[in-house]
Amino acid sequence: MTAEATTDREALPVELVDERGRAVGACPVSEAHAAPGRLHRAFSVLLFDADGRVLLQQRAAVKTRFPLLWTNTCCGHPAPGAAAADAAVDRLVEELGIRAALTEVGAFTYRAGDPATGRVEHEWDHVLIGRFDGVPPRPDPAEIADYAWVWPADLADAMAADPDRYTPWLSGVLGVIEHAGEVPNA
């Protein structure tokens, strides 16, 4: 993906929401993430393999928010009026070359500023899970620097030991999944 394509992603519209998740408008991605941040709809996906490991990605260095941090399998923003699950399925293909059936297990709201870029995440984040086994066939280097399969318990220990290596929303994603009873016992 070129820098021009990255700029285009920043111009895509996101759906602004109120504190209850109800649509209240739209604006470009770049505007939603400008300080102090505008609450908007997003999604986070976690894929598990048959053994119960979770697929994580390290965000690419060119990302405008939280570059090079480890996070959930993929994330993004549904277009205004679009279903989060449909947008998430499409984003998995774009970022990793993966197709997987996804199930929404909950949502949460968070706000986090990126001190390195000055951008702000303020998102109503839909959390989706799915199943995938194997190696991602086409990780997009403009999106993903690296990826790894990890055991959930090892991830929890690693996040506790060095939280600055992970995106600020990852703990919320894992909390939604745990609360829904969806973390495999591994």
TrEMBL record:
GO molecular function, one term: isopentenyl-diphosphate delta-isomerase activity
Domain of life: Bacteria
Metabolic or biological pathway, per its Swiss-Prot or TrEMBL entry: Isoprenoid biosynthesis; dimethylallyl diphosphate biosynthesis; dimethylallyl diphosphate from isopentenyl diphosphate: step 1/1
Binding positions (Mn(2+)): H33, H40, H77, E121, E123
Cofactors required: Mg(2+); Mn(2+)
Gene3D superfamilies xrefs: Nucleoside Triphosphate Pyrophosphohydrolase
Keyword Acyltransferase recorded: no
Annotated catalytic residues: C75, E123
Keywords: Cytoplasm, Isomerase, Isoprene biosynthesis, Magnesium, Manganese, Metal-binding
InterPro entries to which the protein is assigned, alphabetical: Idi_bact, IsopentenylPP_isomerase_typ1, NUDIX_hydrolase-like_dom_sf, NUDIX_hydrolase_dom
Gene Ontology terms describing biological process: dimethylallyl diphosphate biosynthetic process; isopentenyl diphosphate biosynthetic process
Cofactor: how bound: Binds 1 Mg(2+) ion per subunit. The magnesium ion binds only when substrate is bound. Binds 1 Mn(2+) ion per subunit.
Residues covered by the Nudix hydrolase domain: 38-172
UniProt: Mg(2+) binding residues: E95
Reactions listed under catalytic activity: isopentenyl diphosphate = dimethylallyl diphosphate
GO cellular component, one term: cytoplasm
Matches recorded under Pfam families: NUDIX
UniProt-listed Enzyme Commission number(s): 5.3.3.2
Localization (cell): Cytoplasm
Family: Belongs to the IPP isomerase type 1 family.
Protein purpose: Catalyzes the 1,3-allylic rearrangement of the homoallylic substrate isopentenyl (IPP) to its highly electrophilic allylic isomer, dimethylallyl diphosphate (DMAPP).
Protein name per UniProt: Isopentenyl-diphosphate Delta-isomerase
